Amino acid sequence: MLIVIVTQLALLIFWEAYASERFATTVAGNPDPVDRLFYGRIGEGMAAAMLLLLAASVIVSVVVLFRRNIPVSIRDVLNHRSERQLIMIFLILSALLQLSFLFLLSPPPFSDSQYYVSHAERLVETGSYITADGARTAFWPVGYPAFLALLEVVTGNMILVGRLFNILFVLFIIAATWRFFHDALSRNQRLLLVAAMAFHPLILFAAAPLMTDQCFLALLMGALLAARMPDAWFKPLVLAALLSAMVYVRPAGLLIAALLLLVLLLAGLSKRQVVLTAILVICALTPWTIRNYAVFHRLVPVATNGGYNFLMGNHSGAGGGLNFDFSYPDTENEAVASRNAYRRAIEDMRRDPLQALARIPRKVAHSYRRGDATILWSVKRVHRSLPPWLLAALFYAGNLAWYVMVGFGLLALVLKRVRLRTRLQRYLVTGVVTAVFLMIALYVGGERYVFPLFPFHAYLFARFFPARA
User: Fold this and answer.
1) Do residues 140 and 111 lie in contact, with contact meaning Cβ atoms separated by under 8 Å?
2) Residue 215, domain extent
3) What is the pTM of this model?
4) In the prediction, which pLDDT does 29 show?
């Protein structure tokens, strides 16, 4: 706690002495009037927010320091309730907080969410996956809009039900993470893992954004659990269903699925089951691939936005993060436009290979530069209803919690406190981490692109602390 307090004090001094003025200058130069107002209000309330959270941290520390019975009481609660009971309490409290934030803010669909909702509405109305102009498309991956369309058909309110499903997704992610790392952590470390995830701002504000992130990570964690199942006739069916759905939701899942199947082979699992899983995944992707070939006359397994993202991260003026200061090939055929974008980006990289290599660490840095993605998507459209100090407090607390988790996790790595008991577990974690960083290095950096690593950062965070802490 002392480390957190000292860090907050240093950040407050840094903000007042230097960062506030630079932040205001950066905000003033933003060409988007919505962003200028939004981040301007955050800057206006940041000093008050930092003081508030610093004071809260000091008060908690003083109370714990002088009231010795509080840690004893906490220890008694932990010792007199079963692990599963405590985890259920954490999950229920997390769900209630998520519901509270969801209904208090009630934000409209924003940015990417608008596109997913619009595609789902047209899918329900026409039975076809088309643009607003009526052209058949595959630019936005079909998996999540199809899921929303199904919710609309079944319930008549895909936005509300989709957000409730987001809560179920993140609760499953937490439970699956606990199960996956169960034998690599002590009882108290497992409780810390679950608490750190359940009450992290990234989770508490994850209900409102109708994005692929929560669904994708739930499917990924489900696939990791399925991969550790004992060999059975249905194991390839379960694993293939989860991997296929993951790819349909986000095309990056194709690389993750391929690497996971490879590491399953390397870990010594049944070759027959791995090959059968691969065949089933290919079969599941075939209908959409055939549809795309009929539309674009090109082989497109899932989506046609690969070239767009590749060009975004690798054009001559790219800085490694999300940017839109580039021209995308203008053609009616989405697959051809994507191919031309790949070619243009590769040409830029060949002209300056050193710059292309230097961009890779910047892509990773952009991916970790902030940890408030779900807060951003939840409050940006309703920020006028929040006072500046509260708006700033949300972003400050979200980023502080993210960096505390990542920082202590890095210390756990440096101190060699990582301990995965089984070969299969080590291979699976290595496969996912490798795939995520490879996608970032090849394409573009962004805070949403490291969200699939959130469970692994939580595991490292829990491993930093002694087993009996």
Assistant:
1) no
2) 81-464
3) 0.94
4) 87
